[in-house]
Amino acid sequence: MLKNPLKNNNIDTPKFSRDIHPDFSKTLRNKVNTYFKTQNKSRNANATMVVKTVIMIALFFVPLIVLASGMITSVWMLFALYVLSGLGMAGIGMGVMHDAIHGSYSKNKRINTLLGYTFNLIGANATIWKIQHNVLHHTYTNIDHADDDLNAPFFLRFSPHAKHYWAHQFQHIYIWFFYGISTISWITTKDFVRLKRYKDMGFLDKKHEYEKTLMSMTAWKLLYYSYALALPMIMVPYAWWIILLAFICMHVVTGILVSIVFQIAHIMPANEFPLPDGEGMMNDNWYAHQFATTTNFSPDSNLMFWLTGGLNYQVEHHVLPDVCHVHYKNLTKIVSETAQEYGMPYHVKKSFVHAIGDHTRMLRSLGKK
C-alpha cells in the first residue's frame, strides 16, 4: 500500500469525519465477510476471472503477433487487427490490471504485481496509476484539487469548483475527441508529467526512487512502441503513415471505452462535489462520501459487467476495493441495503445509454458559467 504524503498537507488533504455513522464500515464488512464465508468463496479471483484474463491478454497480443508476422494482405485487415487489439487493451485496463493493482486479484502479492505489469505492457505505467487512482482518486473522490481525475486541461471542466472558461460551453461536444486520444496522452506525455508532479507532492521520496521509476517507465514504453508500432512498420508492406493511423485508431477505441466507463461513474448530475471546510474537514465520513460521489449503471447487463470489468458497479468497487470485481454483482444487494439502512444515497442508472446521456448533460451544465 502506498503511503499518502498528502495527509501531512493541510491544504489538499481533506479529513473525513469519524463521528458520523462510525459503525457503518464494521456493519458492511461483517455482512460481506458473512457472504463469502457462507458461500464458501474467496473474495479474490475465481476460475472465470482467470479465463477472462487469458482472453483479454490474448485479444491484445494475438493481433499484434499477426501484424508482426507480415502476413497482412489488405489495409482493412491492418485496421481490423489494431481495433481488436484496442478492445483487448481496454479489457486489460478495466478487467485485469485494475483488480491486480488494487491487490484484489489474488492473495499473493507477487501475482498482483505481475498482472499489474500488464498496464505497462499496454503503454501506461502501474506506479503512476497506483498514485493517481488508488491513493488520490479513491481517497478523495470528486474533491477538487485532491482527486487527480478532476485535474483536467484548462479546456475541460469536470468540477463545479474549477475555473470557468468561455470554451467550456462547448465541452459536451468536443470532449469525445479528447476521450478518444486520452490513452495516446498516457503513452506519450501524461505519465512523465504526473511522475514529476507526484514527486513534488511527496510521493517517490525514497533514495533514487524517482530516477529509477523514470528509467523503468521509459524502458517499458520503448518496449511497448517496439512491438505495437515499430515492428508492424517493419513487417507490414504498407506506408508508415497508414500503420501509424491504424495504431492511432487502436488507441481511439481504447480511449473512448475506458474514458466513458470511468467518467460516467463520477461526473454525473446526481453526484456531489463536496469541499472541506476551512479546517480541511469534510461534513461526512469516508463511506458516505463514496456513495454521494459515485454512480452505478447497467446493473442488469451481464455483458456490460463482463466487458467493463465490473466497473458498472462503481459503488461496490469504491466501498470494497479489496474485493475482486467478479463478486460485485452478488454483493450489490448487501451494499445497497446497508446504505439504505444508514440513510446513504445509492445512485444507479438503468442503462449505459442513460448514463451517457446524464454524463453529457452534466458536462453541458459544467460548461455554463
Compile the SSE list and pairings.
Layout: H1 24-38, H2 47-69, H3 75-95, H4 97-102, H5 109-116, H6 118-121, H7 126-139, H8 171-180, H9 182-201, H10 209-235, H11 240-263, H12 286-293, E1 295-297, H13 302-307, H14 314-319, H15 328-341, E2 347-349, H16 352-367
Parallel strand pairs: 1-2
Descriptive overview:
It is a single chain. With 369 residues, this protein is mostly helical. It is globular. The chain has one domain (5-367). The chain is built from 16 helices and two strands. The mean pLDDT is 94. It has a two-stranded parallel sheet. The chain has helices at 24-38, 47-69, 75-95, 97-102, 109-116, 118-121, 126-139, 171-180, 182-201, 209-235, 240-263, 286-293, 302-307, 314-319, 328-341, 352-367, and strands spanning 295-297, 347-349. The longest helix has 27 residues, at 209-235.
What is the count of β-strands? Answer: 2
Give the overall form. Answer: globular
Strand fraction equals: under 5%
| Topology as a string of helices (H) and strands (E) | HHHHHHHHHHHHEHHHEH
Number of domains: 1
Oligomer: single chain
> Biggest sheet: strands, sense, closure?
2 strands, parallel
Average residue pLDDT: 94
pLDDT < 50 runs, ≥5 residues: none
How many distinct helices? 16
Measure the end-to-end span.
Answer: 40 Å
Radius of gyration from the alpha-carbon trace, in angstroms: 21 Å
